Please model this.
Amino acid sequence: MNEAGTSFEFIMEEEEPERIDKLLSSMLPDLSRSYLQKLVKEGAVLVNEKGVKPNHKVNPGDLVEISVPEPELPDISPEDIPLDILYEDEELLVVNKPKGMVVHPAPGHSGGTLVNAVMYHCRGKLSGINGVTRPGIVHRIDRDTTGSLVICKSDRAHQALAGQLKEHSITRRYRAVVLGIIEGEGGTVNAPIGRHPTDRKKMSTRCKNGKPAVTHYRVLERFYNDTLPPHLRCVSGGSKGGNSKGYTYIECRLETGRTHQIRVHLSEIGYPILGDAVYGPAKCPFPLTGQTLHARTLGFIHPVSGEYMEFDAPLPEYFEELLRKMR
Model:
């Protein structure tokens, strides 16, 4: 009875009254509580043959009927796009997303997305919690950011990983090259992020009602201008606190996962990511497409086995080539 597309009924046997959404959530662990509340509101749940509200208290002896509809099929075409798979089992897969690939369909990107690719690979066996346009997607990375991303095949895997994301217990470490020389070993940026007050396509720390956002960073390597050919030297370290002495190769660890978080935080402290024309200077001395940002490490507790698993996505060739030129 935990499967979508089924109907069933039962007699409330608990000794104390209990909210209908809470009761159903305990009986149907593969379905989210918010989804069950939606079913109640839509009249798919009856108590003693009558519709109720999500906060309705079910009493001992009450008859509860529920109809779980078939999952809505997404109007998205599976596409045979090669995937760089780091890990796969019956519950999930971890992929190394390439640069330029959008995670899920959106206006202007109806095809060629990661969702199109995983729908073909998984033959439609993907979690449906995030809606029909984002099956299997529990988190995402920007189009021009490369690296590790987990895709959920089942709703129970999706719920478990979404819970870990909410608790900030998932390991997410990124690699980036920024403009300017960062002094010291590293630091932390703790600044709420929200929609930019004037440019709706951007995010910013200078907004009202921003959500908490924390990024930790540490220096891996520095590349000073005097060691680089003149045409590759850094000419801008940002408008706030940065410098134009060269570039810094860093690792970033996320505590939270706001949209554009690393890009916004590093730009705000004066060290925008190399190639990021949105949050940094428009001109770049290297032939890059988008920001030099890579989701290197992803770690989480497996939703079924309970085992901690960690995956490393190797740096893409363009990133390795960039480091070779700087060295």
